[in-house]
Design goal:
Helix content: 55-70%
Strand content: under 5%
Number of helices: 13
Structural class: mainly alpha
Largest sheet: none
Number of domains: 1
CATH architecture: Orthogonal Bundle
Radius of gyration: 17 Å
CATH class: Mainly Alpha
Distance between the termini: 33 Å
Length: 221
């Protein structure tokens, strides 16, 4: 497996690049390319470089529109990992609660209204805390990461390169995992909304499915 220091670099950069491409992000071209160049895994370095070639070549408005179309308007390629396995069910509420507790144990506090299963947050935690506890949420939600990667590949989004880079340094899927991913891709997540409010997570969860239509100027930063 790729060395822990290299995985941390990859997770940190992928987390940043999976956020909304605002002026601050797009204005950091030199720093982003330098960060990608420090990745020692040649394949992953190439994937990150190819993504940056796209992101820093298209117009800002096109990058922003693509982000909104990809992550905010398509439930099949949302960035909230627990949704892929649990849908809007009590199991998802428990999974979110467990993530919050893990983050708190390591001193991480989420921004107001931010859900703990947002992929950039999960990646930042993995980069900051490292192997073991830090990477555990990524391993636990490996199927969700794979479903997102598959959806991005199917749609031809350049963001597939970031998910391919992340998956390249995660443990391989088992045969059982592949079968579960294939079933979820066909059937979708379970549907049941009873019990979420009792965990204090209901309103946030209901707001995610389906994603509300919005213009690029209204997209969450």
């Amino acid at each position: 497996m790729t060395a822990a220091t290299d995985r941390a670099r990859i997770f940190e950069l992928a987390a940043l690049l999976l956020t909304y491409p605002d002026d601050e992000l797009l204005g950091a071209a030199g720093e982003l390319r330098a960060a990608a160049a420090r990745v020692t895994d040649e394949t992953v370095r190439g994937q990150l470089g190819e993504f940056l070639d796209w992101l820093l070549t298209v117009s800002p408005i096109e990058a922003q529109r693509h982000y909104v179309r990809t992550f905010d308007l398509r439930r099949r390629s949302g960035l909230y990992l627990t949704y892929y396995l649990h849908g809007d069910t009590r199991k998802r509420g428990m999974a979110l609660l467990m993530l919050k507790q893990r983050y708190r144990a390591h001193g991480l506090r989420l921004a107001g209204g931010e859900l703990p299963d947002l992929l950039p947050v999960v990646l930042e935690f993995a980069a900051a805390v490292g192997p073991g506890d830090g990477e555990a949420p990524l391993r636990q939600h490996r199927k969700g990461v794979e479903l997102l990667r598959s959806a991005l590949a199917e749609s031809g989004s350049p963001y597939r390169l970031l998910l391919e880079a992340v998956c390249a340094v995660l443990p391989e899927l088992t045969d059982a995992d592949r079968a579960a991913v294939a079933a979820l891709a066909v059937d979708g997540p379970p549907v049941e909304t009873v019990g979420l409010d009792s965990l204090g997570l209901g309103p946030d969860l209901h707001a995610l499915a389906p994603y509300p239509a919005c213009s690029p100027s209204e997209a969450p930063r």
